[in-house]
Amino acid sequence: MKRVAIAAYLLLGGTGADGADAQDRNSVFRLITKTADAGLTLSGQQVNAVRSFEEFTCYERAAQLTGKEAVVLGMETMGVQRNPFFRDQFTNRAREHAARGGIIAITWHPRNPIEWCRAGEYYSCSLGTMDQADFDRVVTPGTSADQMWMADVDELAGLLTQLTEAGMAPVFRPWHEMSGRWFWWGQKTPESFAALWRRPHDRLTNHDGLRDLVWAWSPDKESEGAERYYPIDREPDFVGADLYAADSDGPMSETAEGNVRPLHPSGLFAFTEVGLLPSNEIFEKIAPSWFLLWTNEFIDRHLSREPCERCNETSDVSRIYALDRVVTMDELRWPSGAPIVDTTDLPPRPPRLCPQGDRR
Fold first, then answer.
1. Catalytic residues
2. What gap in Å lies between CA 10 and CA 279, rounded to an integer?
3. With 0-12 CB in 10 A as exposed, 13-18 as middle and 19+ as buried, what is 351?
4. Closest CA to 147 of 121, 114, 181
5. Rounded CA separation 354/217 (Å)
6. Strands (DSSP E) along 130-185, which ranges?
7. For residue range 154-212, what is the model confidence (pLDDT) as tens digits?
8. Whether pTM exceeds 0.85
9. Which residue segments constitute the domains of the chain, with CATH numbers given?
């Protein structure tokens, strides 16, 4: 059955890895929408922050389990932008994946700009609440908090520019899960969150010339009240939700879809992050444009040091990859040719073998 679905997809045209065009925002947008219009879903796997240099990451683990490689490689900029070693490894891994025709999806967990903390310290710098008065200072141009915030945005711009200059158009998904309270940007007034989205959006696009970013927006879990945070004046290219359900047959995925999908004119909806994968029936019903499976124990719950009801058995990962609708790297077809990505001086990666029990 899967070969029939993919055959119909191939009839829509496009080429594989011997392509002709450079990757840009329009080509990535067309690829995602074309795939969704064909009734298919792009596969995706997140790699842990600062682990892109490792020989065997969660991307390789998923490939080992399923026999297939994911189209979307999720990467995290936290801790990368200030560390030359991690920065080089990050960009090399992204170039390698994109050169094979894959899509890079970037998440950013920015540090709290009004507290002293090192970039990349997730638990002490990204997690945690910020009161509304302090948040208002961050998004008010000219304040000291705004200047610190914009300095971090400018630092990120340098990293993103390296990717776009190498021929990539990454899916950029900042300030996610804003409907929750665990990040410093969470559950703020609609007006102030709109400012948080708008000011860096304008700076990255206009000041830094990063016009090949593909912007994605994703609230949390059921996403109730998500419309309060939808950036209508700087509309994203794609929307989705970050889903961490405790029951694969539960209502979370469908509730989130019902709250988020109607907000965007494309009508598309992605599993921008997913822990426990939904049942096949729910997955088929929602038909996400792509899914991005989260890292480590979410691929294999037995890797968790504690019981994890929101994590998958390895068989859950395999069953999703086996669905007719799920497109993997060997099945991917770009509408107008696969991207040409600069791989000059790209060092070869060693064979990727994972010993049993490796927790990466």
1. 177, 273
2. 27
3. exposed
4. 114
5. 34
6. 171-174
7. 999 999 999 999 999 999 999 999 999 999 999 999 999 999 999 999 999 999 999 99
8. yes
9. 2-331 (3.20.20.80)
